[in-house]
Every structure is written in structure tokens, then in C-alpha cells.
Design a protein that fits this description.
- By secondary structure, the protein is of the alpha/beta class.
- The chain has 2 domains: 209 residues, Rossmann fold (3-Layer(aba) Sandwich), CATH 3.40.50.720; 58 residues, no CATH class.
- It has 9 helices and 10 strands.
- An 8-stranded mixed sheet has the order 3-2-1-4-5-6-7-8, sandwiched between helices. A two-stranded antiparallel sheet has the order 9-10.
- The radius of gyration is 20 Å and the shape is globular.
- GO terms for molecular function: NAD binding; oxidoreductase activity, acting on the CH-CH group of donors, NAD or NADP as acceptor; oxidoreductase activity, acting on the CH-OH group of donors, NAD or NADP as acceptor.
- InterPro entries: 6-PGluconate_DH-like_C_sf (IPR008927), NAD(P)-bd_dom_sf (IPR036291), UDP-Glc/GDP-Man (IPR017476), UDP-Glc/GDP-Man_DH_dimer (IPR014026), UDP-Glc/GDP-Man_DH_N (IPR001732), UDP_ManNAc/GlcNAc_DH (IPR028359).
- This is UDP-glucose dehydrogenase.
- It holds the Pfam family UDPG_MGDP_dh_N.
């Protein structure tokens, strides 16, 4: 079997060792779900306190069930470390690190870059690397791919690289990591197939394959932009209705009766500032 066939076989048999880089609100839920699906998972984080908590089975993320984490640690299916040398044991790695904006409102990819470089030090043939961090279109091919190929690996043949945007909505009681549909775009068709095979073995949500990482990266930007625009719209409508003495909730309830092209808005309180969240009308 070639590298592609061997890796898919390992994934299907749940013999693949999985890495999750970054054990925050995206990475830890993903690591727990992969462990629950039967894989051995190694979580990597630069914060020793997080690593210590995970290895003690202590949860610090609201969307993770305390007992799930404790069980996976106790069974030896999930372990955390700060030592990237353990990446040599890994067959598939997911990068789930922050991508904040800098002082110029430009994306700061330094965490992605450092993670990719650390993975590349121990990368080997027959390995999958998936970027999940929200970022600009082109990041996967401009940052992740080159450092892996600098090791002499060939994308789509000896190493498989893809982008699959995280879709975590902290506090959402209906949609969690497990049941939220996943978008996957690989640099080559085989990259997409390998990444999709892993997600399908872990998650209950559908896996939607796209033709490239750039499509998946832009899709994530579209999602976030859509949400932010609707937050702004809901806020402006609430302010206008208040000034006109109109009940904004009655307006919203009336608008949601339209069976197409209409969205429902709800509000949550945060530090005495009303923040509106758009959710699809079911």
C-alpha cells in the first residue's frame, strides 16, 4: 500500500495516533471527541498549567463534559504535553491555535507559524496535518505546506495537508463539536479524502468536501462576516425600535413568520451591554 492507503487504513481501524495542537475552547473539545471515537490522542499546548489540568482529568472548558475528559484520561486515550518531540508518534495533527488581530487589524498568524514549524521538525511520511484556526484564504498553502515540504515531503503523496475551519459556538446547547457539520478542503484530492475520513470517524455531523483549502478558509470568513453583520443589524434595529416606542421582539416574531429569507434574532446580556446574536429560525 502507498502512504495514502496506509493512512486511511490506520484511520479506519482507529490505529492512528492523533495530535491536537492548542487545548483551548476549540482544541480540547476536539481532542476529547477524537479520544471518545477510539483514537489515542496527544494534546499539545505551550501552557504547562493546561497540560497539567488535562493530565489530571480536570476540565476548564465549558463545552466539554467533565466526566468525558476524566474518563478519556483515565483510560489512557488522552494525554497532554508541552514536548513537541512526541509529534514523532503522531499520524494526524490538527492545529487549533489562536489567530488574533494585531494592532493594525491584520491577522496574526504567529501561533500558526510556530505550530507548523514544530510539527515539521518531527513530520514523517504518511502524516496528515489539518489547520482549523480561523484565518485568511491562502494560509494553509502559504504557511503550513512550505514548512512540511522543506523536510522533503511531497504534499498529496507523502504528507497530506488540509484546512477544516473550527465552528465552535461556546455555550450553544444544541450544536457542539460532535454534531456540527464540518467543511474540509485539502491541497490535493487525496488530502481531502484523508482528512474527511478522520472527521467522519469522529463526528456525527456531515462532512462537506470542497475543492481547496482556500475555499474552506473563505467559507469560514463568510460565516463570521454574516454573523457579525446580523449582530450589527439586530443592535441597530433594537436601538431604532426603542427610540420609536416599538416592541422589537414583536417585530422579530412577526418577521420570522416569513418562510424564506428571514432570520430570528435573540439577545444576551454582557456587562450591561445588549449584544444580539443571530440564529437560524428553525
Amino acid at each position: 500500500m502507498n502512504n495514502f492507503e496506509k493512512l486511511v487504513d490506520k484511520i479506519e481501524k482507529r490505529e492512528a495516533v492523533i495530535a491536537v495542537v492548542g487545548l483551548g475552547y476549540v482544541g480540547l473539545p476536539l481532542a476529547v471527541e477524537k479520544a471518545k471515537a477510539g483514537y489515542k490522542v496527544i494534546g499539545f499546548d505551550v501552557q504547562p498549567s493546561r497540560v497539567e489540568q488535562v493530565n489530571m482529568g480536570i476540565n476548564y472548558i465549558g463545552d466539554v463534559v467533565d466526566q468525558d475528559l476524566a474518563d478519556m484520561v483515565e483510560k489512557g486515550r488522552l494525554v497532554a504535553t508541552t514536548d513537541y518531540a512526541r509529534m514523532a508518534e503522531v499520524d494526524a495533527a490538527a492545529i487549533c491555535v489562536p489567530t488574533p488581530l494585531d494592532i493594525y487589524q491584520q491577522p496574526d498568524t504567529s501561533y500558526v507559524e510556530s505550530s507548523a514549524k514544530e510539527i515539521a521538525k518531527y513530520a514523517h511520511e504518511g502524516m496528515l496535518v489539518v489547520l482549523e484556526s480561523t484565518t485568511y484564504p491562502g494560509t494553509t498553502e502559504e504557511i503550513v505546506k512550505p514548512v512540511l515540504e522543506a523536510k522533503g515531503l511531497v504534499t498529496g503523496e507523502t504528507v497530506f495537508v488540509a484546512y477544516s475551519p473550527e465552528r465552535v459556538d461556546p455555550g450553544n446547547k444544541q450544536f457542539k463539536t460532535k454534531n456540527t457539520p464540518k467543511v474540509v478542503g485539502g491541497i490535493t484530492p487525496n488530502c481531502t479524502k484523508v482528512a474527511s475520513a478522520l472527521y467522519r470517524n469522529v463526528l456525527e455531523g456531515d462532512v462537506f468536501e470542497v475543492s481547496s483549502p482556500a475555499i474552506a478558509e473563505m467559507e469560514k470568513i463568510f460565516e463570521n462576516t454574516f454573523r457579525h453583520i446580523n449582530i450589527a443589524l439586530a443592535n441597530e434595529m433594537a436601538i431604532l425600535c426603542e427610540k420609536m416606542g416599538i416592541d422589537v421582539w414583536e417585530v422579530i416574531d412577526a418577521a420570522k413568520t416569513k418562510p424564506y429569507g428571514s432570520w430570528r434574532f435573540t439577545q444576551v446580556q454582557d456587562l450591561e451591554v445588549t449584544v444580539s446574536r443571530s440564529i437560524h429560525s428553525i
